[in-house]
């Protein structure tokens, strides 16, 4: 019997993929797209440069003197988790909160509908994992979303028949919980992002648990995404990469899909590329998947060695929708819908992210007012925390319950919140800036 190395050499790239999950990441360095060449290369200096900094300033981000000043303040946080401990200037924000960012995963939720309808258990994972990959096109935006106020909510309706609600359930550490549902699936997530500031970059670890239940057969899917790195945060051109494995497991059958996100190299080599396989419970490859997370994903049947089956061809399963040109915040059309009242319920909670005065001011282009409102909210939240602690009170989420379950993630343990199923008591809409101020802020 030949050694694994020789076997892989004789069988080619796809065979290397099947030599075991321990060799998966190294094998994926030679991706399908890499074999056929790179098109439309985007020249990227991973370390940044003066030209990049000037381009960022022209895009409306901070000027070089602002970067220098901020760098002096941030040096002391190198190596620390800066998720909520640092006050950031509003100039680097986008007019969206983290709760709304969570809802962006629902743009292509029709793929979950297809997964629920699908009879083939392996093609079902192709649809579901393509849904999980699709959001990375939106995640490449380099603007920072606002941290939600404790008790803040976001609701969305009027999109593919789903209802979506998310709530900020903890402030220290920052934790959010979300739930979405339509006739085909339910989606539940508890998220506690963990960060590590490295000077001119920040690593973001997706400490969380994502579960999707397909209603027709009761199939439960578990998703573990790769970490993300924001590069050239202060100096150079800011850009986002998410190198590593994404794993989606069918907890009902043991089947799984493992997709490898290629790291970006010089001149954009490997950027956006995603490759992997759908495996059965015995870890035998059934379908190969390949594509770019900013363009499209395709799949093809494969043999036991991971090679494409003769007589088959790649079939596209997802393609990114058309996006606005020269949008200030690089928003998709769906991101604009998330901010609009077109996707809001007829009556809206006073705690909804759309109504935050700082977010609203930034959306209207009033930067000074956005900064002032952000500072005011943060100070009111700190004051509310002092008052609550002085009275011995505790915060209790309204729409999610803390369970006794603790999930183990690659980046730490996570307490799980469960959606209560109780519909929020709505309030009538009034002037956006005023309505959010009726919310009792806690932290």
From TrEMBL:
Superkingdom of the source species:
Eukaryota
Positions of the region Disordered?
A: 370-392
What would be an example GO MF term here? sterol binding
Q: Which SUPFAM superfamilies match?
A: Oxysterol-binding protein-like
Q: Name one GO cellular component term.
A: cytosol
Any Pfam family hit: Oxysterol_BP
Record field: compositional bias (Basic and acidic residues) = 371-391
Similarity-based family: Belongs to the OSBP family.
Q: What is this protein called?
A: Oxysterol-binding protein
